[in-house]
Amino acid sequence: MNKEIPLIKDLHDDNRPTINLPDPLEDYLPEKILPEKLLREDIPIPQVSEPEVVRHFTNLSQRGYGVDTGFYPLGSCTMKYNPKINEEIASFSSFANLHPYTPEDLSQGSLEIIYKLGEYLSNITGMDKFTFQPSAGAHGELTALLIIKAYFKDKGEKRKIVLVPDSAHGTNPASATMAGFETIEIPSDERGLVNPNILAKYLNKDVAVLMLTNPNTLGLFEKDILKISQMVHETGALLYYDGANLNGIMGYARPGDMGFDAVHVNLHKTFSTPHGGGGPGAGPVGVKSFLKDYLPKPIVEFDGEKYYLNYDIKKSIGRIRTFHGNFLVLLKAYCYIRLLGSEGLKNVTEMAVLNANYLKERLKDLFHLPYPDLCKHEFVLSGKKQKEKGIKVLDIAKRLLDYGVHPPTIYFPLIVEEALMIEPTETETKNTLDQFVEILKAIIKESEENPNVLKSAPHSTPVGRLDEVHAAKILKVNWK
Amino acid sequence: MAYTPHTSKEILEMLKAIGVSSIEELFNDIPDDIKKKAKDNFILPPPISEIDLINEIQNLAQKNKGEKFISFLGGGAYKHYIPSFVKLVAQFPNFYTSYTPYQPEISQGVLQAIFEYQSLICDLTQMDVANASLYEAGSGICEAALMGVRINGKKEVLVSEGLHPEYLETLYTYLEAQEINIVKIPLNKNGETDIDFLKEKISNKTSSVIIQNPNFFGVIEKELEEIEKITHQQDALLILSIYPISLGILKAPGEYNVDIVVGEGQSLGIPLGFGGPYLGILATKREYIRQMPGRIVGETRDINNRRGFVNTLQTREQHIRRAKATSNICTNEALSAIMAAVYMSLLGKKGIRKIAEICFSRAHYLKDLLNKEGFELTYPNSYNFNEFVLKTPIDSNIVIDFLKKKNIIGGIPIKRFYPEREKEILIAVTEMNSLNDIHFFITSLKEAINKN
After folding, report:
1. B164 touches chain A (CB under 8 A)
2. What is the dihedral of CA B140, B144, B150, B151, to 10 degrees?
3. Do residues B284 and B260 lie in contact, with contact meaning Cβ atoms separated by under 8 Å?
4. Count of domains observed in chain B
5. Structural domain harbouring B420
6. Are B224 and B301 in a shared domain?
7. Mean pLDDT of residues grouped by 10 in chain B (452 residues)?
8. Are residues A421 and A440 in the same domain?
9. ipTM of the complex
């Protein structure tokens, strides 16, 4: 198990065959038609036989961990179960092999799915119109910020500030920069929330938008959201909803009803599409009707008979990527919503919140719990008690690997010292949560009796703790 | 509920442990007004069973009639053969149900596969370093242009009109936001970037020159050496958008001293999927690695000196650097990158060359037949890879509509992007177009012209 897996290039032999392919037409070979200066000689890509390639990547995949392998309470990532039927449907040839420039009359099925998903997401979030071009949450943030920028430009206002709470995801300020804004962070109050009195000091005519995720990254519902919304709008600014935590409120609160003007939704979180080891995802953006003329074009519309691409969006910010977005991801989210309906999605939220509160209750004595209120889909513990004894949350996280559990998100949000951000999701049983508690108890016990077993963890993984500083120093980023 | 496993007994036990008496109580922190609105307005179509879902979806799938047609569609997305194992790998649970490898010790599979992807892209393009993926080529071009601005601090980019029109549109969206100026360089009568115009427009204020090869009209930019000289004389960067399969025969970007390579990786084993998810390729010279957007996997060692892989140079990224990050990208297209790595590994140097030769030879066979039948091409004196522009004596939509009746999608009418160009069709040929398809296409095309 712990033997090094060679690189695919180490299996190279020039004399190995490639896969079975037809032959090119002899009379039309490139060297007979193109000038020599345009042609390449060697392609230094390794030649490996098919059975060896299969074995190589199969072995690699065994050195991994997924939702299908075990518990994955990675905070803010909503690592819920990915229904298998969605994968099968996305592999149907009529979807998988359809070219994006297929004429509209020959791609009505895919266009209908995009259109209806827009209606469903509008209903879930309380928005009026969606675009599906954004390929991920951060891409959605950028899209929405550009829409907001175009809106203010249209009104003749130059607002250059984006406000984010200090608990915000890093993508928020990064997206603001890409959209040409400046970011100012608002400190959270002792409750871990945005406080209207603090917010008031930051609101002025330069502020374009306040970006919030609600529940926030501490898993807490922003109780003052209606007041916040009123204050933001009174200064003429807009309110943006980062949908990363939508799993915590479905059926109980809609961003549109809370006063948000634009949202993005992470289909790869709330709507069960898999994360693929880092992607692909999809980050569709929904807006209230006063912003819909700024959406990227085209938008899928329905004229009563057929679905079509509407390019006639006068104030559109333009394209944010090619084609129609990550369609196969959209399809999986569509299936998920059809299987669950409103009641099912509400149940998803209820069980996610139940799991999070239960786990919080069971862990609150083991760690420091900085924000003891009810949480929504996730909660944040602090390992500061352990740190006083020389144990970092990193050590605890690495030791969890030995017990076959994926660790929570650590060192985020930045406002909690030695943060452990835990999001169990709704698809886990009580049994799994109880086992997780027992494992953490065992680890804390070990930390008192034999701290070195934590500090040198993990011990049972294919490699031991990896030296990230060394990686940045040698910068060996390919096999050359 | 299918995906929430809780029994009522467990729910009661858990509520008790929390110290509340009902599920609703867990939502006491949400104002009543908000809850009431959600209750009244959250109404989706009723849920259906898996069996009914399959039926519903099959009905929708049947409305995608185009999938069964003989297709000559290209324009940045191409129907290529995908070996079975590539599709299987995309279903390996530890690949597709895992998150970003934040815990490298249990993610060596994903990390090594991405490291191999980065290496294979470097081999294919002859560049020094590649990142772990971007969304697709349109936003990828924008990331490259922004990277160029970070490198040399200049705020003007020159863009060939041979760039895919959707990439160009995306570029306007991204660059306008940061007040970076775009100057378009037109094509000459052969469909290549106009070098005289480039010389006239380029200055020491130019940050980068963006070229696509083969360009959107299928034309091979044969003066890349000259373009490289002109660009570097002004201390500007050369950014090249590529079609990876073409590099099975065409000289690699690294051999032209290109600074940043971007490409649509869909052709490397990723299904067409009506436009996504695809794969944004980005590769560059080693000296620019710290200005790259997105994740990069690097080799390192563990405490026992064993080889391992980690995400490296993370201080460029949004979760560390926040507003000062090189990009906002977080979720990328890791699974597509793994699929591309498997695809390139399965084909190897011989296979990639062969696929490129099949595409090239069949496209040129079709081009030859069209010539012999008296059809005209927009750029008859250009070199092509597997795509070219056909002139039609009548409106291109009439031709396309006629071909549809023969179950053929005859290509992309150029007027989709350039409304004034009403009588041109962009035609792509790949290894998936048989000689029979090609013959039937020619016969049907002749009929389309004669009958309309």
Report:
1. yes
2. 150
3. yes
4. 2
5. 66-78+349-451
6. yes
7. 94 98 98 97 97 98 98 98 98 97 97 98 98 98 98 98 98 97 98 98 98 98 98 98 98 98 98 98 98 97 96 91 92 97 98 98 98 97 98 97 98 97 98 98 96 87
8. yes
9. 0.98
